Amino acid sequence: MVRLLAISDVVDEGLRTAATRLRPDLVVACGDLPFEYVEHVMTVANAPLVYVPGNHDPDLRRRRSGEWPPSPPEHRDADPPGPRGGTNVDAVVVEEVGLRLAGLGGSHRYRDGPNQYSQREMRRRVRSLVRRSRWRRPRGRSVDVLVTHAPPAGVGDDDDLAHVGFDAFHDVYAALRPSVHLHGHVHPHEGVAAERRVGSTRVVNVIPYRVLEV
Fold it and tell me: Pick from 151, 168, 135: which is nearest to 205 by CA?
């Protein structure tokens, strides 16, 4: 079993010290947190970090020289952009601490800005992710953990445009069969379950943090 510490959206000051005693094997950040806080939790936990960007995070995509629009000035010298020492798993499949993880950052598009996608745009991203997963492991398409910022449609999402979930995440469940889906973005109301199940996938809203074993 691998012990995960998943964080998202809300800074929990107690976690700055509690991360040591939680002893995670991996820190997973689901977006919309100050990079300094994410870096601090990773350092105190003494564990590797994977993350996806949220809709309030800057654009973390690296652009090639001459590509338009260019990277924001504050990111041109960052190596890599985002929390230092972590791995951005947005739209990629990685292997870390014995787990296979796939990531999809961002939220439903509701205004101008980075890390926002229409339902159609996210479907394209999902198809690309599934192809990439099959290419990297042609005989076994599954992933252990899906990491996103937004929830799936109809499963812990909300009805306002900014917090609508993505239909295409259900396609990820069917194609890659993650055992766990970690997300943030929708702040759970009192009395509302932060954990649900879709088929064989455990869907967990991690705000502000959750510890779980996979």
Answer: 151
The total of other beta-carbon atoms located within 10 Å of residue 162's CB is 15
Q: Are 50 and 214 in contact (CB under 8 A)?
A: no
The amino acid that residue 194 corresponds to is: A
Q: Residues 164-212: pLDDT tens digits?
A: 999 999 999 999 999 999 999 999 876 566 899 999 999 999 999 999 9
In three-state form (DSSP H/G/I as H, E/B as E, the rest C), the secondary structure along the chain is CCEEEEECCCCCCCHHHHHHHHCCCEEEECCCCCHHHHHHHHHHHCCCEEECCCCCCCCCCCCCCCCCCCCCHHHCCCCCCCCCCCEECECCEEEECCEEEEEECCEECCCCCCCEECHHHHHHHHHHHHHHHHHHCCCCCCCCEEEECCCECCCCCCCCHHHCCECCHHHHHHHHCCCEEEECCCCCCCCCCCEEEECCEEEEECCCEEEEEC
Note if the bond before 208 is cis, omega within 30 degrees: yes
Using alpha carbons only, give the angle 148, 4, 117 rounded to the nearest 5 degrees: 5
Q: Which two tokens stand for residue 52?
A: 């996806």
The span from the CA of 60 to the CA of 79, in Å, is: 11
**AA identity, residue 65:** S
